[in-house]
Amino acid sequence: MNPYISIIIPAYNEEDKIKDTLENIKDVSEINEILVIDDGSSDKTTEIARSVESEKIKVFTLDKNRGKGYALNYGLKIAMENATIIGFLDGDLGSTSSEVKKLITPILNNEADVIIAKFPPATKKGGLGFVKRLAKESVLEMTGKELDATLSGQRIFKREVLEKFKEMPYGYGVEVGMTIDILKYGYTIKEVLVNMTHSETGRNLKGFIHRGKQFYHIKKVLREKKKEWR
């Protein structure tokens, strides 16, 4: 039986990037459906996503902003109806979304249970590395596995992996929480270098606030995981 690949794209106020993101994955032959979950955007994300012509694309709009974890859970309930392989992609990848093919190939070749995109170095100075270091060291501490892309939201999963989760962790800690659980369950993860780019936060107030929220959410998820897996 041929695999059925569903890609879930949670999007919040991505009117500038969502069109390019969709245009550059809609013709990837291996992908069967693309689920855009507009997480209560206040801009034209839904309208622009629906303007992209493809029978694969299905757009769902949440009544208000509920966070990435909620949007992923919403999309998963739909994807699980048919999919044997499920991918998560961010809405701001733009034309680089076509790099998803580099993630799909190894999952089809059964090289691992989960494939995570490893991005090239950021083009501009971001934070001081606290969040990335926290994520990497925490995953290593709890699982014994050293991964570089623990924060990456670009992931492809075998269906059986996601069936182990009643729901995705919420908040900015979703990727770290999932990574720990996946490894603890005994599944394998492979990181693949891609030439993807997305919106970067700089060393300004907005950037530091974002990273502060990330740090807080990751710490919260880590406390929960230590209780669950002790």
UniProtKB/TrEMBL annotation:
Pfam families: Glycos_transf_2 (PF00535). Transmembrane segments: none annotated. One of its GO terms (molecular function) is transferase activity. The keyword Cell cycle does not apply. Keywords: Transferase. InterPro entries: Glyco_trans_2-like, Glycosyltransferase_2, Nucleotide-diphossugar_trans. This is Glycosyl transferase, 2.
